[in-house]
UniProtKB/TrEMBL annotation:
Domain of life: Bacteria
Coiled-coil ranges (or none): none
PANTHER family, sorted: PROTEIN YHFA
Leader sequence segment: none
UniProt xrefs under InterPro entries: KH_dom-like_a/b (IPR015946), OsmC/Ohr_fam (IPR003718), OsmC/Ohrsf (IPR036102)
Stated name of the protein: Redox protein
The organism of origin for this protein: Methylohalomonas lacus
């Protein structure tokens, strides 16, 4: 996996992924930025959210669960001193579907957290990661 990050002036940087996608990162105005993009640490949290949501949806699909939506709301705390690593991350999953099995949802989240989500497992080296979930029933049309 490769990526290139280029300085765009001030505190802004443009990252280009190996798959050709670009993302803008910038700092807060008080840090010399212009608030043109996400902060790098926010990107790490978004990456973890995408990684674990991807896993949960795939595991539920493979389990033939009728998943129609998956949202992960993440909140994190950081160390007070440099390096200001994440010290705690909480992931709240909102999984929707018509007739989802609660045990299957819980299992999918646990498998992602404990085995499959590289981002969660890596961030878990410095942060205590917790999770919970809710299931939203949707009706078939």
């Amino acid at each position: 996996m490769e990526t290139v990050v280029s300085w765009a002036g001030g505190a802004a940087f443009i990252g280009q992924t190996g798959s050709g996608h670009k993302v803008v990162m910038d700092g807060a105005p008080e840090g010399g930025g212009r608030n043109l993009g996400a902060r790098p640490m926010e990107m790490l949290l978004v990456g973890m959210g995408g990684c674990t949501a991807y896993d949960v949806v795939n595991i539920l699909r493979k389990s033939r669960q009728p998943v129609s939506d998956c949202r992960v709301e993440l909140s994190a705390s950081r160390a007070e001193q440099d390096p200001k690593v994440f010290t705690a991350i909480h992931a709240h999953f909102i999984v929707s579907g018509d007739g989802l099995d609660e045990k299957a949802v819980a299992r999918a989240i646990s498998l992602s957290a404990d085995k499959y989500c590289s981002a969660s497992l890596m961030l878990g080296k410095t942060a205590e990661i917790t999770h919970d979930y809710e299931i939203v029933a949707t009706e078939s049309r």
